[in-house]
Each structure stands twice: as C-alpha cells, then as structure tokens.
Amino acid sequence: MDSTPISRRRFCGALVAAAAALPLGVAWARPGPERRQLTLRNAHTGEQASVVYRDGAAYDPAALAELNHLLRCHSTGQVAGMDPRLFDILSQLQGTIGAGQELTVISGYRSRAYNDQLRRQGRGVARNSLHTQARAIDIAVDGVAPRKLARLAKSLRSGGVGTYRSFVHLDTGEVRFW
After folding, report:
1. Which of these, 96, 83, 92, lies nearest to 31 by C-alpha position?
2. Long-range contacts: 125-131, Cβ < 8 Å, 24+?
3. Which value, to the nearest 10 degrees, does the dihedral of the CA atoms of residues 62, 158, 138, 113 take?
4. Which residues fall within 8 angstroms of residue 24, CB to CB, at 6 or more apart?
5. CA angle 39, 148, 66 (to 5 degrees)
6. What's the mean pLDDT when you consider all of the chain?
7. pLDDT digit string (tens) for 66-83?
8. Would the pTM count as exceeding 0.90?
9. Are strands 176-177 and 36-42 parallel, antiparallel or unpaired?
10. What is the pLDDT of residue 29?
C-alpha cells in the first residue's frame, strides 16, 4: 500500500471527477423515496381517507385507487387516475404543516363536461384546466390561512401554486405562482 500523502490539489481533483461522474439530476439534499401517507377529506362528499400510498419507490395500487375515487369529479362521479406526483406534493406539504393534519379537497379531478359547465357559469376556470387531466387539486386546511398554505407549497417548488380567497390550487405543471 502506497503511504505517499495525497496532495490537496489531487484530492480536490478526484472529488470533482467523482462528482462529475454522478448522473445529472441527483438531488444532494433529498433522501430517497420514503414512506408517504396522506389524510384527505372531500368537501363535497364528506368522504375521508388516510392511506399510505407509497412505501419506498413503490406506489400501492390499492391506495392509489382509493385516492383516485376520493378525488373523482363530484359532479359526474367519473374517476380518473390522478398523477401520483400530485400525491407526493400533497404529502410533502402535509408534512410541513403537521403530519396527520387533514387536507380538505375542494376540487380534484374534473370531467371535461363539468369544467365546461363551470366556465359557462363564469367561475373563472381554465379551458384546458389541469384538473381535467387529473394533474391538479384545490385544497384548504382548517386553521391555516390560504396565504400561509400557498407560501409553504411554493417553497416546495414542485409545480403550480395558485392562491385564492379560501383555498390553494396545486398542480404538477411547470413551477409557477399566481
């Protein structure tokens, strides 16, 4: 074994080379996928769910089906496969406001017909809303002002965050705020 001391320059060079060899997109500060849980209540149906939907890298299909049913279009009853990344955003947000703190769902998936009906009523919904693509949710949390909830959601930098008078919109689109 060579007992020659390594120079600082050589050590730093090796460190840079090792870092360059890592795949792009490695998150230095984030741990790997862990156990993820959600506690939700649908404001329109009164239904509740508290499920572990992911354990490690694997999503639980039964838990996802339960969440998809809870977030169905409350007007038509149509169920869609929600983007699982939305659940990850919600889980992270729920963790920042207090594990187990129930999130109240104002709107999850919206059928195209229901979204069009809301537009005709002048409710200010987007024509191509991410709700119709199962990539958006509107939530509220008892005891947490929408502005505070939105500030916490924005800090995640994980998609769109819209602040409204009584709720916050989250989606898996580009990072943007309104």
Report:
1. 92
2. 130/160, 130/171, 130/172, 130/173, 131/107
3. -80
4. none
5. 15
6. 86
7. 999 999 999 999 999 999
8. no
9. unpaired
10. 33
